[in-house]
Amino acid sequence: MSYQKLIIIGNLGRDPEMRYMPDGTPVTNISVATSRRWNSADGSKNEETTWFRVTLWRRDAENAAQYLKKGSKVLVEGRLTPDKATGGPKIWTRQDGTAGANYEVTAEKITYLSSKTGEGGAESVVEEPAVSYGEEEVIPF
């Protein structure tokens, strides 16, 4: 038996897109950006952004479509879904001719770390319990 689990924390790059399967099952796609920042040996600052296309099903799909918006911070637990043609990420060409890649994720669990309120557009942080790994507590953001 083999198993994989991917955990990402990032922000939605656009509003959720919800649709229904022919049997009526709700499905929502969200685009989540994660960023990594570091300083090079010469002191220059660098940043790398990785995009994940996340698919949510059933109740999670309905809730995401209702409560999430572009910019919302989420924690997603799921599994990578490889591109059937390549077995890896989905490769595409940007308008400027450079290569891009999307990593497809099927969500098993999603946690909302922030949300945009409808009134005044102010951002509020949702209080989440710390995630426990062994005996240490780690706050997931």
The structural domain count equals 1
What is the CATH topology descriptor?
OB fold (Dihydrolipoamide Acetyltransferase, E2P)
**How much helix is in the residues?**
under 10%
Radius of gyration: 17 Å
Name of the CATH class: Mainly Beta
Our count of helices gives 1
Architecture, according to CATH? Beta Barrel
Strand content is: over 45%
How many strands? 11
Give the overall shape, derived from the CA principal axes: globular
The order of strands across the largest sheet is 1-3-4-7-5
- Elements, N to C (H/E): EEEEHEEEEEEE
Helix/strand-derived category reads mainly beta
- What is the CATH homology-level superfamily? Nucleic acid-binding proteins
Biggest β-sheet description = 5 strands, mixed, barrel
- Name the poorly predicted regions: 117-141
Distance between the termini: 32 Å
Task: Determine the mean pLDDT.
Answer: 81
Q: Can you summarize this structure?
A:
By secondary structure, the protein is mostly beta strands.
Description:
The chain has 141 residues and is mainly β. It has a single domain, classed as OB fold (Dihydrolipoamide Acetyltransferase, E2P). The chain is 7% helix and 54% strand. The strands form three sheets. A five-stranded mixed beta barrel has the order 1-3-4-7-5. The chain has a two-stranded antiparallel ribbon with strand order 8-9. A two-stranded antiparallel ribbon has the order 10-11. The longest helix has 10 residues, at 58-67. Residues 117-141 have low confidence and may be disordered.
